[in-house]
Amino acid sequence: MKKLFGWVIFWSVLHFLRTGEIYDLWGQLTAGIASSGILPVSWFLFTYCLLMFFGYPLWHLKNRYPKFFSIATVIWIVMLAGDVGRELIYAKTQSMWLHLYLGYFAFGMALNDIFAWIQKKLTKQTCLISALGIFIFTAIIYTYEFSNPHFSMAPHEYYGRWFYSLWLIGMFWLCVLVDFKNVIIQKTLHQLAGGTMVVYLGHLPILLYITGLHPLQSTGEAIGCICLLFALLFVCAECMKRLPLLRKMV
What we know:
The chain is an all-alpha fold and 250 residues long. The protein is built from eleven helices and no strands.
C-alpha cells in the first residue's frame, strides 16, 4: 500500500514539474468516482490503492469460504466475458478499472486453488499441453481481433473479453507449471521480476506522454516503443533500488 501511495505522489510531483499544475489528489479521486475518471497521470494508481483496501476483506473471505470464493470469482470472470456490466465500463473510466481489476484481482487469488485442484486430477504433462494450447489459441484470436481492420476497438476495450481472460489464464498457468533448473535463468528471472512493479506502474503515463507528442503509426512501432519502455523502466528500477528515498517504491 505504501508503495502505491508513493507512486501517486511521485507522478504528481513529475506532473507539477512538467506542467506547473498542482495536482489535487482528493479532488481527482472524488471526481473520478463521480464522473468520467481520474486523469491519466495517476488514475490507475488510485485504482490500485482502492483495490488494496478491497483486498483485505476479499482475502479474509477466501480463507474462510475457499470453495464459495473460487466459484464466485469464476462466475464473475464469466460475466465479464459475457459483457455483463460493459455499459458501466464504457460510462466511467474509474468504474471500468474497478469492475475489471477487482474481478481479475479476486480471480487471481482463487487461481492458485483452482490450479492446484486441476493438477490433482491431471498429469503435469497434460496440464502443460492444456495451458500451452489455451495460450496459443487465444493469442491467435487476440492478434486477429486486434489487427482486423473491421474492428476499431481501443486496446483497453479488449479487457474482460473471453479470449483475453483465457489468454491471461493460459499464460499464468504456464508460468506456474514451468520450472527452470538452470541457476543463471533463475537469477535472471528473479532480477527481471524485481523490476516489474516499476515497469508496470511507470509505463502508462510515459506512454501517454510520448504518444501525445508523437502518435504511433503502426503495430510494429508500438511494439518497439513498448520494448524500449520496458528496458528503460527496468534500468530505472535498478537505479531506484540504490536510492534511499525511492528504494521503498520498487
